[in-house]
Specification:
The chain is an alpha/beta fold and about 230 residues long. The protein has two domains: about 130 residues, Rossmann fold, CATH 3.40.50.2300; about 70 residues, Arc Repressor Mutant, subunit A, CATH 1.10.10. It is about 50% helix and about 15% strand. It has a six-stranded parallel β-sheet with strand order 2-1-3-4-5-6, with helices on both faces. Helix 3 packs parallel to helix 4, helix 7 packs across helix 9 and helix 7 packs across helix 10. It is globular, with a radius of gyration of 18 Å. The chain starts with a strand and ends in a 14-residue tail after the last helix.
Length: about 230
């Protein structure tokens, strides 16, 4: 069960998310807060349950979502934060990354897709909306250490795992990997874990960057890429 907290100053957004997420069997909503201040206070209160994932708006009065994310990560760095916003400019994306957010979604996202993203993030993955994917590639390629350019198989990655690497770099969730390769969810997760170990990487984002650096995908070919 994934525990969720919503922080958004727009009442309609909060109510819509509450209604949709309460219907999802593996998600439990801990609360919905109308300001960053209220969200921070909820996290700081030791009597409250700790959420696994927070859905955070960016543009809010007094304290915005970027600053709130920094504060919350200092209180508990294990909490995963997904920015859910209408903003798509590069500066906000960069600020979201540096604040500790592991997801960035535009608010017109479908509920079914949002649930997939919540599951990816809860499992330790990273996900960014296709609308800002090109920004993410620019930022990450300039900030993450890169591996020496080699074929993936030189690292002991199997041909099937190479297929998984390619799909991750194109934005596939574990569910989409199972559908594309006709494998079980357990097998997909095992492949991802094996790839991370063999390539000495930490998360799906770095798998995507490895794929770009080693020409498994073209960086400008598919702007729908998410991580």
């Amino acid at each position: 069960m994934i525990k969720i907290l919503i922080i958004d100053d727009h009442q309609f957004t909060r109510q819509t998310l509450e209604y949709d997420l309460k219907k999802i069997p593996n998600i439990r909503l801990l609360g919905s807060k109308a300001s960053a201040k209220e969200g921070i206070e909820f996290i700081q209160n030791k009597e409250n349950e700790t959420p696994d994932v927070i859905l955070m708006d960016i543009a809010m009065p007094e304290i915005d979502g970027i600053e709130a994310t920094k504060i919350i990560k200092k209180v508990n760095e294990q909490i995963k934060i997904i920015m859910l916003t209408v903003h798509q400019d590069k500066s906000r994306v960069r600020d979201a990354l540096s604040s500790g957010a592991v997801g960035y979604c535009v608010k017109d996202i479908k509920t079914s897709d949002l649930v997939d993203i919540i599951e990816i993030v809860a499992e330790g993955g990273v996900w960014f909306d296709k609308k800002i994917a090109s920004y993410i590639l620019d930022i990450l390629k300039n900030s993450l250490p890169t591996k020496e350019t080699k074929a993936a198989t030189d690292f002991g990655v199997t041909p099937r795992e190479v297929e998984v690497v390619e799909l991750i770099a194109k934005g596939a969730s574990n569910k989409e990997i199972t559908q594309r390769l006709t494998i079980s969810m357990g097998t997909a997760k095992n492949h991802v874990a094996s790839i991370l170990k063999k390539l000495s990487l930490n998360d799906r984002t770095q798998i995507a960057i490895f794929a770009l650096n080693n020409n498994l995908v073209e960086s400008e070919e598919d702007e729908s890429r998410v991580f």
